[in-house]
Amino acid sequence: MSGAVAHPVISSRPRRRSHRQLDTYPATAARVTYLAITVLATVTLYYELYVGGSVSTLQLADLNMSFTFYVVILAFGNLIGAFGSLFAGLADRWGRATLVVWGLFITGYVTMFVIPAATNKWSFGIETFAVAVVEGICLVATPALIRDFSPQVGRATAMGFWTSGPVVGSLVVAVVGSATIPAVVTNNRIWTHQYYICGTVGLVVFLIAFLGLRELSPALRDQLMVTMRDRALIEARAKGLSDADIQAALRHPFRQLLKLDIIVSAFAVSVMLLIYYTAVAFSLIYLTTVFGFSVKDSNGLGNWNWGFNAIAVILIGFVSDRFRVRKPFMVIGGVVGAAMVVVYLMQAGHHPGYYTLAIILAISAFALGVAYTPWMASFTETVEARNPALTATGLAIWGWIVRIVVFASFLIIPVVINSVTPLVNYGTNVKTYAATYASQLSFAQTHPQIVATAQKYQVQLGYAQKFAPELAVIQANPAVFTQLAKYPNPATIPPKLLGQAITAAGGGTKGISVLQTISANKAQINAVVAAAPQLQQLAPYATQLKALSQVPPGVFPYLQAHGPAVQKAAAAAPSQWKRWYWVCFGGIVFFLLSIPLLRGRWRPRDARRDEAEHEAMVQAELAKLNIVAG
User: Is 277 left (phi over 0), alpha (psi -120 to 50) or beta?
Assistant: First the structure.
């Protein structure tokens, strides 16, 4: 955790500085405040970026998006964010705090006012790009601020808190979603409420950062700080750094840092994080379509995942700093995380309970947190070993690679998993219809000939129900009504026969009314009589046919149009998701193989020896500076 530091050229020339820049290293209370605001900003930015994950299925349905379109939008959002990360490499020249503060304002405004107004998939997709590019910038600026305010011996702890930003952002998404989304959603447009809540939080945090966030001046932040005891030496050097010294350290930044250890390490952690980005973007879709959980319960499982991940990234930071090593924790976390990915993917196609999945997700998330926080600390130390003045540039390279990897993987996902669109767009309705009208569907499937006959004689069945009393009178008195049929003109019916007919129909006024109804609807009644043999076949199934007739007219056409596709997708989904999670497993294995490239010791005693040697060097150089000053 030690590294060489260049000796400055003494100069008294004044330097321009931003109102946010500090010319002296802040005291502990102020430093903790700036770190806390940076972490709060990071949490908020990732909350805004990930908030759609809590309502993705509702967005797909409301905005008429296919899963492929949704994934492509996410992919290009990451691509745009990748170049935002490269742009943020300018933070080494322009500073970090300004990028973070105004990034918070832009994302807060877009999340609060712009995205919820989207009424189609195109406007939604384009508007989310604004959040993606700002997040790409802040992915670099915020860890650079964390690095500036944290010496190497406390770097893992500080990076643990920064790493908690994306994780706690995801946790907030899940907690707010599970608390505010109803168990039964009746209006898909309810997804906008999550953005209103998120945007409000974003604008409040913008005000906090605007008023309170500061950063170190280039003369301070461009030096290597191993322990807090280096403060006196760093401030002494900073007084003698000229603008030319600073510009010289920043010359050809990418040429200085595009090295094997930095590029391969950044790529390795990016493919390890495929499991993380899959959970952020698609866990709701996966849990609802493969395991049948509700949107509310799926967000509840997210609480377990992100909650344990948040605990891990902070806790392991303290532990790593306590032992002064990073690599052993990366190995432990990576091995356990890879094993839990296999356990998780094997659940697809089965019916695990809520708490079974919760425990699997909790252990997996905790293990990945154990691997990731030490990596962040070690990566910044690896960049510092090459040039501490180019920390933001090194993080920009990492941020660009992360986003490019996610972009490419998100383009691959719809090819590997093509079962989502029918399940998301039609699966809920198909499942609801199948459950609501289960008995009617079963009857139709087991008695197709009866249903076909009923459909053929649907009109006659309707007449039979409508004129049931009149038909009963006719069937009870066939001789009388056979005679009446001989007199097409009612006025010519003999009085005696008319009297018999009235009596047969119930007598008096009632009988006359029945006869009038029969006369006025002679064609319909004759149609029923003509179809009597067929209608008799249907008589034993009258109850079932009546229930079948009460099914809304659009249900059966909908099931016929989409039912087969949904059934096929439901059968294919588990194996398709398994294939993708095997890719995620491979990413973790590659990460494990890349660990030796990073700076840092494997054994605590070696790390402590390096620290002692660095302390001796600091004391010797302070003594020299005091002699020169004298």
Answer: alpha
Residues 397-428: tens digit of each pLDDT:
888 898 899 889 988 988 888 887 787 777 77
Distances (CA, A) of 113 to 52, 141, 181, 391, 546: 15, 25, 20, 35, 51
Q: What are phi and psi of 215, to 5 degrees?
A: -145, 165
Residue 313 CA, distance from chain mean position? 20
103/156: higher pLDDT: 103
Whether 618 is in a domain gets the answer: no
Residue 422 parent element (H or E): helix 420-425
Q: Are 475 and 391 within one domain? A: no
pLDDT (tens digit per residue) in 92-122? 556 678 888 988 999 999 999 999 999 898 9
Whether 144 and 227 share a structural domain: yes
Cβ-based burial of 488 (10 A; exposed 0-12, middle 13-18, buried ≥19): exposed
Same domain, 360 and 243: yes
Q: Are residues 202 and 343 in the same domain?
A: yes
Give the tokens for residue 547.
Answer: 């229930």
Q: Are residues 139 and 288 in the same domain?
A: yes
Q: Using 50, 70 and 90 to split pLDDT, how confident is the model at 263?
A: very high
Instruction: Assess whether 485 and 530 both reside in one domain.
Output: yes
- Measured CA distances, 496 to 477, 493, 499, 515, 581 (Å): 15, 8, 5, 15, 89
For residue 491, count other CB atoms closer than 10 A to its CB.
5
Q: Could you give the C-alpha distances from 530 to 460, 467, 525, in angstroms and in order?
A: 9, 14, 9
Please indicate, yes or no, whether residues 207 and 300 belong to a single structural domain of this protein: yes
Q: Which of 326, 324, 287 is nearest to 304 (CA)?
A: 287
pLDDT in tens, 230-254: 443 344 444 444 445 445 445 656 7
> Where in the sequence is the domain holding 491, given as residue range(s)?
438-561
Q: For residue 440, give both structure tokens.
A: 């009617």
φ/ψ (deg, to 5) at 66? -80, 160
Count: domains in the chain: 2
Domain end point (choices 509, 537, 561): 561
For residue 348, the tally of other CB atoms under 10 A from its CB is 18
User: Is the model's pTM score more than 0.70?
Assistant: no
CB 600 within 8 A of CB 2: no
DSSP three-state, residue 253? helix
Phi, psi of 394, rounded to the nearest 5 degrees: -60, -45
